[in-house]
Amino acid sequence: MRGPAARRMLVGARLRGLRERAGLSRERAGYAIRGSASKISRMELGRTSFARRDIADLLTLYGLPGGAEREELLRLAREANERAWWHRHGELIPAWTHRFLDLEETAREVRAYEPCQIPELLQTEEYTRASLAIRDGIREGGRRIEIDERAAVRRLRRRLFADDPGRTLTAVLDEAALRRHVGGPELIRDQLAHLAALAGTGRVELRIVPVGGRALPLPHGFSILSFAGGALPDVVYLEFLTTALYLDKPADVTAYAGAWDRLAAAALPPDAGRDLITDLLKRL
């Protein structure tokens, strides 16, 4: 499993399972590692780094003083503390996106809804730079290095997706996002051609909600990340201008999965979506 955040979630889930199997409370486990119930909760949710001594003491408390499973968990905990691929860009990308970058890399299936722009994994380099300038008010010559660094991160995300044939992306986007001339007609022409090429790969499915269609259930974009084998729960990611939300409670995930189904139902079939992109290209 890739990505420190995903590894922390996996280790945390395994620790929670062992604790519950041993019939121990979070308070008892926290006392054993000189901590508190809230620390155990953070560890089990994968929201903190792991000290080797803490993991070793908990495994002993949970009835794993030795053996292959103990060694595997100690290894996973060590790997969960390693730096992620995006670390060298970390100062210039928003802190609230760091966990998402790890989880996205690990996810086998991504379902993304975007009402205003092309999904980031499907953007061309030029579209990425133009959208960064618009959203964040970054202008050429003022904070050029910030555009370069953020664009580099998106480029690496696209490369990671392209290099892993086991990953898929289904994107629902509003037709208005295709018609919005971010960066000018020439740029959007290249972007639409790029979308048309990706839609024919078998790993990317585009579902376009036509202008004038029925009302949509949500005004904001979101992504649902699903992981292989059910090792981790689905995670819903919502990004705003200055923060982000990560939702993994079953009720929240179910609500967004339902919204996703309604969005997909409102969209054109994939073949009709590709025809729409072709038609838009002819008009440019």
From TrEMBL:
DUF5753 domain: residues covered: 99-278
Record Pfam families: DUF5753, HTH_31
GO molecular function: DNA binding
SUPFAM superfamilies: lambda repressor-like DNA-binding domains (SSF47413)
Keywords: DNA-binding
Domain of life of the organism encoding this protein: Bacteria
Protein name: DNA-binding protein
